[in-house]
Write a structure and sequence with these properties.
This protein is of the alpha/beta class and 432 residues long. It has a domain at 42-289: Alanine racemase (TIM Barrel, Alpha-Beta Barrel). It is 28% helix and 26% strand. It has 13 helices and 22 strands. Strands 5, 15, 16, 17, 18, 19, 20, 21 and 22 form a nine-stranded mixed beta sheet that branches. It has an eight-stranded parallel beta barrel with strand order 6-7-8-9-10-12-13-14, surrounded by four helices. Strand 9 (129-132), helix 6 and strand 10 form a beta-alpha-beta unit. Helix 2 (42-55) runs parallel beside helix 9 (260-273). The protein is globular. Bound molecules: pyridoxal-5'-phosphate. Pyridoxal-5'-phosphate binds next to helix 10.
């Protein structure tokens, strides 16, 4: 049997004409669990993590998986077991980490809009650090901590004003967006924070954007962060850790982001050169750990050839795969069972009543009604962004480990969707 790997996808391959994730046959998984179905490779996630770990050998680094990329408990558990900490952006995410067995002390809490209730719960849980994003938030966190008789560990997120050269919606480190403290105000903000009795300053952090495919923005951000650390420490405020955030991109369609290991060799060389080699580090990768480990398997419902365009209507939609509609994002789409017939060009669309419900434009595929397709690179920012629009049940998720498969999320039911709703008066059927 010939084996044929897909570009950028070391754990997904055709054996003969059938697509496999590790040793699991995708047609069989779709048969067993139905479609649309998210399928993840455990080995792929661990390999992505290992690339960072290799880059950090001999250093003091905490890798905090940013679980907004994929916050399913089974995925969190895998990273907790592999020794990761976590970057959370809500109390909901914090609750998930604890439910999956993650350690509170390895959680960092990011985000521009933490509520008092979230701060209180996070302090009581004993999280490792708050990444504070504004001066107003520092005041509130100070108050909340004092009301509990504690000190909140804090790091201040700074906006280094570097252009990550990515999509504007996922660029976060430039002037004029809502994240972090402006470069010019950082030193005085640290001095102010150091004077607040409810806060204990731990570090400095930045996160410049997402799907970054070049080294330069990271090197620039590191340079600017180190300048700030020097300026802050010159005022007598020690900075224990430096957190460079996440954002490393993946290959969706031939992009060539730096490999985590190589990128960190360069970043660490810069740290060493500037005398910060012994400083503790943190990073917050999300997409680069899970994005290419996942796919969404979908069934072709109808072929609808037209005069101008041919539509291929599949059973996954923008509620399952929101990235194309949100960011004009590209996902490779490949057949689960390859056909030898010549291909045609299709607009791959979902069943939702929106023209924005598309999954791929102008894709060359040889397909028939009832075939299965795999939408690749769907491990990050798909299921975690999924919705119930059009009262569609959210998909099931399977984690593949060699030949073993674990159902890590059951397909939602209509009863699940309606559970929290109330009619204003009883229906006739209920009265009877
Ligand atoms: C989203 C986010 C991350 C992770 O970004 P990726 O692009 O998925 O690596 C890390 N840190 C913060 C603060 C974030 O908001």
């Amino acid at each position: 049997m010939s084996s044929n790997r897909l570009p950028g996808q070391p754990y997904i391959a055709y054996h003969g004409d059938e697509l496999f994730v590790e040793e699991a046959n995708l047609s069989a998984l779709a048969q067993q669990f139905g479609t649309p179905l998210f399928v993840y490779s455990k080995a792929s996630m661990l390999a992505a993590l290992a690339a960072y770990q290799r880059g950090f050998v001999g250093r003091q680094v905490q890798i905090c998986y940013a679980l907004k990329a994929n916050s399913t408990l089974g995925v969190i558990q895998l990273f907790a077991q592999a020794g990761c900490g976590f970057d959370v952006v809500s109390l909901g995410e914090l609750t998930r980490v604890l439910a999956a067995g993650g350690q509170a002390s390895r959680i960092i809490f990011s985000g521009v809009g933490k509520t008092r209730a979230e701060m209180r719960a996070a302090l009581q849980a004993g999280i490792g650090c708050f990444n504070v994003e504004s001066e107003a938030e520092l005041e509130v966190l100070n108050e909340v901590a004092l009301s509990l008789g504690r000190q909140a560990p804090v790091s201040i997120r700074v906006n280094p004003n570097v252009d990550p050269q990515t999509h504007p919606y996922i660029s976060t480190g430039l002037k004029g967006n809502k994240f972090g403290i402006a470069h010019e105000r950082v030193v005085q903000t640290y001095q102010h924070a150091a004077a607040l009795p409810g806060l204990s300053i731990q570090g400095i952090d930045c996160h410049i954007g997402s799907q970054i495919t070049q080294e330069a923005p990271y090197l620039d951000a590191m340079e600017r962060l180190l300048d700030l650390v020097q300026a802050i420490e010159a005022t007598g405020v020690p900075i224990h850790h430096i957190d460079l955030g996440g954002g490393l991109g993946i290959d969706y369609n031939g992009e060539t982001p730096p490999e985590a290991e190589q990128l960190w060799h360069k970043l660490l060389a810069k740290l060493d050169a500037r005398g910060f080699g012994k400083r503790s580090l943190m990073i917050e990768p999300g997409r680069s750990l899970v994005g290419n480990a996942g796919m969404c398997v979908t069934e072709v419902l109808y072929l609808k050839p037209g005069e101008q365009k041919n539509f291929l209507i599949v059973d996954a939609a923008m509620n399952d795969l929101p990235r194309p509609a949100m960011y004009q994002a590209y996902h490779r789409i490949v057949p689960v069972k390859a056909r030898s017939a010549p291909s045609e060009t299709w607009e791959v669309v979902g069943p939702i009543c929106e023209s924005g419900d598309w999954i791929g434009h102008e894709r060359d595929l040889s397909v028939q009604q009832g075939d299965l397709l795999a939408v690749l690179s769907a491990g990050a920012y798909c299921m975690s962004m999924a919705s119930n629009y059009n009262t569609r049940n959210r998909a099931a998720e399977v984690l593949v480990d060699g030949a073993q498969t674990h159902l890590i999320r059951e397909r939602e039911s209509y009863a699940d969707q309606m559970r929290l709703e109330h009619l204003t008066v009883a229906t006739d059927a209920q009265k009877r």
